[in-house]
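Q: For a teaching handout, I want to show students what a protein-ligand complex looks like in token form. Below are the inputs, and the small molecule is zinc ion. Please produce the holo structure.
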Amino acid sequence: MSGSSQEVESSAADRARGSGSEAQPIGTPVSSGGSARAGPSREILCPVCSSDGCTLLYPDTLGPDVPRLDYDFGADHGRTYRIMKCGRCTHRFAIPTRRDLWKEYEGVEDPAYMARTEERAATFRKLVKRIHRFCPGGRLLDVGCATGDFLDSAQAFFDVEGVELSKWSSQIATERGFRVHRSRLPAVSKDSAYDVITLWGVIGLFEHPHEEAAAMARLVKPGGLVCVWTGDMASLPARILGRKYWYVMGQYLQLYTATSLCRMFEMHGFERAWMGTYPFTSSLRLLTNSLGRYPVVGGVTKALVHRTFLSRVFITLLLPGEMFAIFRKKG
Ligand SMILES: [Zn+2]
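A: Here is the structure, written as tokens, with zinc ion included.
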């Protein structure tokens, strides 16, 4: 990534086409320090459809801090950059943000993530079965593979590889025997190599979503799949909870709706193959931990569940707004 000291005025159309430009979106302040945030922007364009009809949804509550990037959920996770809403494609997005936030992931160590291995495996087995219905086998690339739990489940049907920035996570995945690219997705150079690319809770983290989607279009074979899990800002929970919706976290720079998610992939030559609900499977013990950012509810449920037989009960939640989408590359 470049470290330009000027505010960049790249063509909105270039970005919409996924030109691979390293430029910041128009209106994103670019500091000479390369990481600090700067003052108000001149113009703000939607990072999905490039519309200039964006309005303030939530003010900045993060200040100059780096957002929480781990899974040890607490009230701090709800502190965000300023969130804007696009009036055309309904996308929500954080702006301005810390430049090159992705570099912060390289140093992330997250022991709390390890506590959820069993739950993730139960969820991932369901995901793999669903994907297998659309693609019987071949090469699969999991973006943000963390410690390799999905790769472990997916290798039942696929030859698997991962992409992971965290040194700590990628080392664990490598020690488990998986091939891991420790880079951003656009740096992976195997054109048309993959039958399936998966992103579980990752697509909202990207600073430049079109750049990443263009990389997916390049890496996946014609007829291949991109499978995505993320939240839906137009869903009932999002509308009821507002900025307390669990996807409104500092680390999520892109907050999709089904409309904006589909629009972005269609712009890169994909079509929607299937849209459903993510089969989030968890023990009640970890479910109550996830409620940690809601102090009252989290405290009460924790008291009820922990230290009782309930902590070992597993349930699958099909929550409205937990989008699980499969896109197929045309051609
Ligand atoms: Zn838009």
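A: Two things your students might notice: Residues 117-134 form the longest helix (18 residues). Residues 46, 48-49, 51, 86, 88-89, 91 surround zinc ion (CB under 6 Å).
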